[in-house]
Amino acid sequence: MNRKQIQSNLMLVLVALIWGTAFVFQAMGGDSMSAYAFNALRSLAAGIALLPLIAFNNAKQKKSGRAAGTYPKDRRTLIVGGIVVGAALAVASALQQLGIGFTTVGKAGFITAMYIVFVPVFGIFQRRRLPVTVWISVALGVVGLYFLSMNGSFTLQKGDALILCCAFGYTAHILLIDHFSPKVDGIKMSCIQFFVCAALSAVFMLIDGSVSTWQAIGEAIIPILYTGVMSSGVGYTLQIIAQKNTEPAVASLLMSLESVFAALAGWVLLNQKFSSREMLGCAIMFAAIVLAQLPDLIAAAKKKKLDCSAAEFLTVDEGLCVQIMHVGSFDDEPESVARMDAFLRENGYENDLNDVRLHHEIYLSDPRRVAAEKRKTVIRHPIKKA
Fold first, then answer.
1. pTM to 2 decimals?
2. Range of 338's domain?
3. How would DSSP label each residue in 118-158?
C-alpha cells in the first residue's frame, strides 16, 4: 500500500466519522424542530454547499476543453436523474429523521447501515446471481436486528421500524444512483437531488402543518449546518477525492464504520448506552455488513494479482472512419456491420482494413451488469474512397 492509498483510506475513515456523528446532530435538530422542517433546511444547505465544487469543476473542464453535460440529452438525463434520486432521498431521510426521534442514534446507525446488505439482495431483480455470503449476511442481519431491537418479542419498536424502512429507502436511493450516475455528472446530480429533497421536505412540512419558527431554526442552526455542510458538502467531496486512489470494495468497507462511529458518538455526546444484548446485536449486524462486502473484497484482491505485462498503450491515428452504435448482443454485431457496409457503398466508400488500419470496438456497457439486448458497443472501421 503506497502513501496515496494510506492517505485516501484515512480520508474515508474521516468521512465515516463525519457521517456517524451526523446522527447525533440529527437527534439534536429533532429536539428543536419537526423532521420535515429539519430535512428541508439541511438539504437546502447541502445543495448550496455543493455549488462551489460544481463551479470549480466547470472551470476545470472549461480549461481542459471538456464540457460534460452540455448537450440537451445530457441535461435532460441529469435533471430527470436528480429529481428521481432526490425524491427517493426525501422519503428515506424523512423516515430516518422521524425514526431517530423514537430510538437511539447508535441503533439508528447500525440499522441504517443494513442498506449495504439489502443492495446486493435487490440484485435479484436485475437477474444477478447472489453469492452465498449475501444470504448469510441477510440471516445475520435479521438475528442482529432481533437482539438490537426486539426485547424478548418479535415486534419492532416504532423508531427501529421507521429506521428499517429508511434502510430500504436508501437501498432504492443507491440503486437509482447506480442507474443514473454513469450517464451524468455525479456532483451536479447530487446537488439537484438535495434541492429536490429540500423542496419535497418543505411540501411534507406544509401538509403536516409542522412549520418551524425562526426561534426553532436558530436553536437548530448548528445541527442544520453540520448535517448539511459537513455531512453532505465536505463528506461528499472527501469521498470523491479519496475514492480515486482506493478500491471500491475497500472504500465501502471503511465507510461502513459510520455505524460504529454513530454508536460511539451517541455514547460520548448523548450518554446513550447499549445493554449487553444490544451490543451483541450491533456486533452481529456489523458482521453481516462486512460479510456482504466480502465478494467485492475478494474480487479486488484477485484483480491486484492479474498479470497485465502483455498490455500495451498505443496512440493510434485512425484517419477516415465509419462507425455505428450497436445496441444488443455481441453475437448480433454482423447485422450492424452489414449496415455500415451498405452505407459505404451508397456513398462511394469502401473498407480499408489491413495490418495497420484495424477493426475497433469500444465497449460502453459492462457485460456483467447490463443485459445482452441493452449492451452498447461502438464499431469502427477505417475506410477510403472506392
1. 0.69
2. 321-385
3. HHHHGGGGGTPPPPHHHHHHHHHHHHHHHHHH-SSSS---H
